[in-house]
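Q: Here's a chain of 641 amino acids. Please give me its 3D structure as tokens.
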Amino acid sequence: MSDDLTLLEKALAAAPDNWTTRRSLVERLVTQHRLEEASQALLEAPLIPGDEENLLFTARVLSRTGRGVGAAIGVLEDFLRTQPQNAHAHLLLGRICLGQGRVAAARNHIGMAASLDPGINAEEELAGAPAAESLDELDPGMVVALGGGGEHHERMLIVGEGEAVHAAEKKSDAREKVGALTAAIAVHAAIFFILGLVALTVPVSAPPQLSVSSVAGEEASTVENVQLNKVSRKTSATMSQATPVVSVEAFSPTAVPQIVDPNNNFAMIGATGDAGDFGMSMSGFGDVSNMGAIPAQMRSRCSASQRLKRLRESGGDERAEGAVKKALDFLGSKQNSDGSWGVDAPFACTGLALLAFLGHCETPESAKYGDAVVNGTLYLMAGAKKNKDMMAGPKTAAHGVYEHAIATYALSELFTMTKESGREIPRLDSTLREAVKIIVDGQNKAGGWDYAYRASSARSDLSVGGWQIQALKAAHNTGKKFSGVDKALDKAIKCVKEAQGPNGGFKYVLTEPDGKPSLTGAAVLALQIWNEGDSEHVRKGLAYLDKTFPSPAMSANLYAPYYNMQAYFMEGGKTWETFNGKFQKKILDAQNADGSWTPANTKLHDYVDGQLINSCWATLMLEVYYRYLPTSDKVQGLKVR
């Protein structure tokens, strides 16, 4: 048995995508009562088939451990979103809820299961009557095999330690277990009492903390100092066993493997324990009924089935989701010990990395990337406090205007994704208020921005302005009434229109004679995200890009492609379909084996962070299929590739 287990472990290490090998390993671990290892093997699975048998097997095993029960619930809830008539999934989810004391939820799911399958007795289930395949009564050494036989498709066999019996023939040992449970409770109560006395005499060391404080302004909270616990950074391969804490309430400590929508054409999808697959179930966003916690334009990023649906509808290659996951692993591995990313432009790099994680619905709730998101957020907030609300490093000098805008953009998007969850990050709103104020106050009379936020300058830099517009639109999306945001955006859009040259391209500065290919996408996107998506300026700008880039290609600087891909996607329809058909494969083919893009020694504007920045931009490009909905409905008519 041990030799077989060793062989399976070696085979899985060589081919982690092989589900058959992984499942065999999990089954062996379960029969040896090594449930924690079995659960961990499932949580680390890059691929999990989306059929009922494998999903219920996965949920059963995960639910047997404390840290896996949340993941089991997430798997079942995500599956039920696409297969709401599945009695087995409802029954299993109901039993798990009952074990957690969530009686109302248990009644709902068990009642639904009984209505779908007359062979299920809801009253017996809810009364706690013994059931052969009950999670509370199933021996750890048993693996449940689902069978399709029988009029009601009941589970046919229980297989364990050398015997196989029909479920109906398995005799209950409930009385013996009740006695054993009573004795166990008494023993544990005594132990806890003794440990409690010891704990009272032992001083508790305080966890590392980062104090984020600010003086309350006219709109600020009356609480002037809130401590945020900073969690230790994990590598991208490590699954959470403890919750990243950014408030007095803990986030979910679980990961939920991604599962396949049986109605689509993809055979499998990666499973890395991302928050996107349980953001609507086990995370702070509440249960399935609380889908409204995520703004409508962002919801498609927050479940595996929705991401796949958007990929299909938008012409996405099935490799895109896997490429994004590899990219997030790469970014996770590059985070600095202080929570930042990058060397020369840490605030910009941290902001871009956070946007890439958030684009896949990786919030502080994420079991795999939650620590990275929390620590990156704390880095930006601490920097704002230290630098009088300006999020920029000394190396960027006047170019800190880019860093501050990107960081504000990221924090605004994080705020929007967490504000309705009941898990708001302390002081994030006040940090944003001051950060947004810097951008609004730094706008010049023409509606543009110059280096160092020189509001008195007559120079309007479209490259600088593009990031300020994105940041202000993200601040607008939070729903907070940040002073001056809408007015600043109105002025900015007027300035962008004035920057369009006679050739249809947009100028770097207004004094130039004609537009530039590198900034036209930025201008078009700015117009699209602030009520000008159907304007003549957008039409001419896209026509200019079509002419300038008849065969769009990857390069060592992905600044322009980052904007161009978003602009084409927001336009939708045939325009997007043509561009996507030319460019998507090039992005995917250009990804390095480690999940990055461009060489490691790539420099951008003499900054050594070139590869990191390019990798963030490329990740955001591949997330475009589900990160936001397009401004029009044209995308709905796209062909499924």
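Q: Can you summarize the key feature?
A: The longest helix spans residues 174-201.
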